[in-house]
Amino acid sequence: MSVAGRILVIQTAFPGDSVLALPFIQEVRRLHPGHAIDVVCSPVSQEIFSHSPGVSVVHPLEKRGEHKGVGGMLRFASRLKEQEYGKVFSLHRSFRTTMLVNLISAGESTGFDTASMAFLYDRRVAYVHRDHEVKRNLNLLGGYEGESWKIMPEVVTTPRQKAKVDDFIRAIGVDAPLILISPGSVWETKRYPLKSYAEVASSLTASGYRVVISGSQTEKEMGEEIVRIAGDRVVNTCGIFSIIETIELMRHVSLVVTNDSAPTHFAMAARVPVLTIYCSTVPEFGFHGYSDESFYLSKGADCKPCGVHGHKKCPNGSFECGTGIHPYEVVNMIIEIMKRK
Questions:
Q1: Residue 212's domain spans which residues?
Q2: CB count, 10 Å around CB of 4?
Q3: What band does 307 get if pLDDT is binned at 50, 70 and 90?
Q4: Which of 38, 100, 129, 282 has its CA 20 to 30 A from that of 224?
Q5: Are 277 and 257 in contact (CB under 8 A)?
Q6: Does residue 207 contact residue 171 with C-beta atoms inside 8 Å?
């Protein structure tokens, strides 16, 4: 394929960031029909990009494995350089990513002006902190005024994945509106307290709803604890479904309730209402749900926000931003959202 015929997009951050990169890829596909669009991502996000209809080849970057260190990076870059990319867009701003882009020697490279070693990019675009992440990414292409940036991420599930989720729905015998709670996050201070989530789940089942708990294998114990407290009308699916299968599962529910974390963005891909609970972070960081059915709860605190990503533990030990949001407030908001349906 000619030099102009392949385009590379780099986003090696968390799965949530990867989902938010999909609208950008969809627009690159629209603007460059006939071009192959490849992606460099972290291994944990490979599944997401592999199920994007706009992506040709996914190159997982094993930062802690075979691509670790200078030698590993050089080997990885050499393989990409062979593809003779006409354009490279970097949605990631790290030093490692800038070096990778420079080593690829594409026809044209585009990145953010806040990227490490930004001067190495051929085109530098302003990183606008007040914008939503989807809009910030689309700024690399330009021309998205007003609300035209609100493009929903697209993922395609396979028949086997759909069948797996359908079998699960039949097995649990859904006899009431289904609400999905995803209690996890990489960052401890982003997590609404587990006991509070359990109280929310208990109140919802008492009000006639069914509740499923969603998360990764590492979050299985969280789900088990919620079920222990809330009862057997709550089903723990943590560790059962992959990311794409979780998005398919969300398509069967009436509402997703989660923290400021990846499931908020999964809900955008599933086209399902979402209630995001903000503990140590705030919607103004630009990672909130952006559909017409996106809602959030956030309580002020003198120390909030304490960081863009959150922390492994509360810096002052109070966790007022999380404990200050009472379960009854969450339940009341869920009921109000459900009344709109």
A1: 159-340
A2: 14
A3: confident
A4: 282
A5: yes
A6: no
Residue 152 lies in a domain: no
Q: Specify if 164 maps to a domain.
A: yes
Mention every residue, 6+ apart, whose C-beta is less than 8 A from residue 271: 152, 251, 291
CB 305 within 8 A of CB 190: no
Q: Are residues 299 and 206 in the same domain?
A: yes
242-260 per-position pLDDT tens digit: 999 999 999 999 999 999 9
In a 13 Å sphere around the CA of 47, the CA atoms on its Cβ side amount to: 15
Task: Say whether both 210 and 249 belong to one domain.
Answer: yes
Q: Are residues 119 and 179 in the same domain?
A: no
* pLDDT tens figures, 104-128: 999 999 999 999 999 999 999 999 9
Residue 183: pLDDT over 70: yes
Q: What CATH number did the domain enclosing 244 receive?
A: 3.40.50.2000
256 lies in some domain: yes
Number of helices (H), then strands (E), in the chain = 12, 12
Inter-CA distances, 208 with 98, 195, 256, Å: 52, 20, 16
DSSP 8-state symbol, 165: H
How many structural domains comprise the chain? Answer: 2
Are residues 194 and 292 both part of a single domain?
Answer: yes
Instruction: Report which of 77, 78, 100 is spatially closest to residue 89, judged by C-alpha positions.
Output: 100
The reply to whether 243 and 203 lie within a common domain is yes
**3-class DSSP state for residue 87?**
strand
In this predicted model, which residue has the larger pLDDT, 174 or 274?
A: 274
Same domain, 108 and 225: no
Rounded average pLDDT over 168-177 = 93
Largest CA distance in the chain: 62
Q: Report helix angle 262-270 to 243-250, nearest 10.
A: 60
Dihedral sign (CA 87, 93, 98, 104): negative
